[in-house]
Q: What sequence folds into this?
């Protein structure tokens, strides 16, 4: 990559149509995991004007239709939708969830003669860099934080007249490979009819200023608020939503590769989710240990097969040799689906909270949420590399 460049990442608020669907899918995942931590789940959600449809395949204890409806309405209410075209009280909810295919179960289940296999084939990526305190790429990190701070202010009542649907975008200028200032900041946010762009800009400005590092604010002409001029009709009434359509928002904002698989709606036997979390955990600990300043990891799996087909680590010429780290990790970390679930303690109802404002760059919770954001492996990695060299 060149040393001097512009890079842009976007985020979407919890009230974005696709994010509503991600949160519903993961709220249902949490509900099933609460009943049985080893539930098998692949739940999709579709939302449009006053309609929510859930479907997919599961192997789990039964949850009644009325309980599923209650979970869905609770998620929509918590996000803040009581509008004419999307109201948690008036939603028509259609439940099309059915039993998991026995063919998939045979391939995944652990038996006396076979370890637990991956729930699907695929390639998963993890990434970390030292651009921010969370060891995330700066453009996506600040995009998330701007929208999250605005959303919190709307819910608290500090910002009045603004709605739950929003998108944000931050373009940063890099010099000598490091972010130094915002080139542009864009926020498109739902609002009450009759509010002017200028009024909304001044409402949003303090949240952008307090989120970006000092003196990073872009020029006034590059601070863009609702460029089309009006954003009154929002949420699934303005644009249909679907689980898994914001995978770049969920990960690294385009600063790193993505294997293509979505996270939300899936239990942790699905390596789309669990192996991506482990790849992030390993990359973050490599950077936290200062063995590299930038790290990309790829892990590949075959459906029904326990051990990964490959592990690739690229430190982008910023630290120790990636092949040395591959050897250390293969010798010390169990990267089978079961090994990952046990290491990161993923069989818990911890997923709804991941479904808005990014799965990465968050603080680990005391109940096990965001366990993949811990840096508790970093000291061990430094010792193992020292012994190897």
A:
């Amino acid at each position: 990559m060149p040393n001097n460049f512009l890079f842009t990442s976007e985020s979407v608020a919890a009230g974005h149509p696709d994010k509503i669907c991600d949160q519903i899918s993961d709220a249902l995942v949490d509900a099933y995991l609460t009943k049985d931590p080893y539930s098998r789940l692949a739940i999709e959600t579709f939302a449009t004007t006053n309609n929510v449809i859930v479907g997919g395949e599961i192997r789990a204890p039964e949850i009644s239709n009325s309980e599923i409806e209650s979970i869905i309405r609770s998620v929509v209410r918590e996000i803040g939708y009581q509008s004419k075209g999307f109201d948690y009280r008036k939603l028509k909810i259609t439940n099309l969830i059915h039993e998991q295919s026995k063919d998939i179960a045979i391939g995944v289940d652990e038996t006396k003669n076979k370890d637990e296999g991956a729930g699907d084939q695929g390639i998963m990526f993890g990434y970390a860099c030292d651009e921010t305190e969370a060891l995330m790429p700066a453009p996506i990190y600040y995009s998330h934080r701007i929208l999250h701070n605005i959303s919190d202010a709307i819910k608290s009542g500090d910002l009045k007249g603004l709605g739950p649907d929003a998108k944000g975008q931050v373009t940063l200028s890099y010099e000598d490979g490091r972010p130094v200032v915002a080139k542009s900041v864009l926020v498109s946010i739902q609002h009450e009819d009759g509010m002017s762009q200028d009024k909304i800009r001044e409402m949003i400005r303090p949240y952008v200023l307090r989120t970006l590092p000092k003196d990073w604010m872009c020029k006034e002409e590059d601070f863009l608020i609702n460029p089309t001029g009006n954003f009154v009709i929002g949420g699934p009434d303005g644009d249909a939503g679907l689980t898994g359509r914001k995978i770049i928002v969920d990960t690294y904002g385009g600063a790193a590769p993505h294997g293509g698989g979505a996270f939300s709606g899936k239990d942790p036997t699905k390596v789309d989710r669990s192996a991506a979390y482990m790849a992030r955990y390993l990359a973050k600990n490599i950077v936290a240990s200062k063995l590299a300043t930038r790290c990309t990891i790829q892990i590949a799996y075959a459906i029904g097969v326990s051990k990964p087909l490959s592990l690739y680590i690229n430190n982008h010429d910023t630290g120790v040799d990636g092949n040395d780290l591959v050897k250390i990790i293969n010798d010390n970390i169990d990267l089978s689906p079961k090994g990952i679930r046990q290491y990161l303690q993923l069989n818990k109802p911890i997923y709804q909270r991941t479904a808005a404002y990014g799965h990465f760059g968050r603080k680990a919770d005391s109940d096990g949420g965001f366990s993949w954001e811990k840096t508790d492996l970093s000291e061990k990695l430094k010792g193992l590399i020292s012994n190897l060299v």
